Amino acid sequence: MGWLSIFDSCNYDYITAGDFIDIVVVSGLLIFCSIVFLLKSRRIRSRTSNLKRKYMIPDGRIMYSDLNVPAKTLFSKRYGLTGKPDYIVKKDNQYTPIEVKSSSQNYPQKSHMLQLAAYCQLIEDNYKTFVPYGIIAYKNTNYKISFDPKLRFELESTIKKMRIVLKKKKVELNHNDVSRCVSCSMRSFCKSKLI
């Protein structure tokens, strides 16, 4: 059955010129909205691609991001930890936390490695999965940090030490860097701060 025979069988008494104009206007609006959504999704995809390149984020689906819009805080009952990694990327059922730092470094900083280890632990506890490594992305390079038994033990040990310090409310200086004292959360308890 061709187009002409379909139209011939229609009863034109019920379609007025106003109805036809309404149909054309609604169709035009739907097409316009579709084009807008298509362009917006391409822009978002392009922006995501650029961010991934800029921060050297590996391939995979970004499951979590705390850089542009505040994300849900992750919590571990077992360790009493909370945190929000900058990104969590999922590829082949493997979750990878990514911590973005604004500085340039020639090697990963110990405090950054422990922060990343805490995010690995939070992901394991929240997503019920094994996390083999995380990534610290500095301005000039990124570092893949294995969440191995040594780092796991160091994380647990550091958490215990921090709890003792918080309980005693006595903090000892463990560095000679004035810039670290400026934004330190323990500054009010520290008797030997540099500034």
Provide a descriptive summary of the structure in words.
This protein has 195 residues and is α+β, with helices and mostly antiparallel strands. Helices cover 45% and strands 17% of the residues. The protein has helices at residues 3-9, 17-54, 110-127, 149-168, 178-182; strands at 61-65, 74-76, 81-83, 87-91, 94-100, 133-137, 142-146. Strands 1-4-5-6-7 form a 5-stranded mixed sheet, covered by helices on one side. Strand 6 and strand 7 (142-146) form a beta hairpin. Helix 3 packs across helix 4.
Distance between the termini: 88 Å
Fill in the CATH topology of the domain at 61-147: Lambda Exonuclease, Chain A
- How many strand elements? 7
Percent of residues in helices comes to: 40-55%
CATH C-level class of the domain at 61-147 is Alpha Beta
**Sequence stretches where pLDDT stays below 50 over 5 or more residues:** none
Secondary-structure element pattern, one letter each = HHEEEEEHEEHH
Mean pLDDT: 83
Q: What key attributes describe this structure?
A:
alpha+beta; 5 helices; elongated; Lambda Exonuclease, Chain A; two-stranded antiparallel sheet; 195 residues; 5-stranded mixed β-sheet; single chain
List the helices and strands and how they pair.
Layout lengths: L2 H7 L7 H38 L6 E5 L8 E3 L4 E3 L3 E5 L2 E7 L9 H18 L5 E5 L4 E5 L2 H20 L9 H5 L13
Helix pairs in contact: 3-4
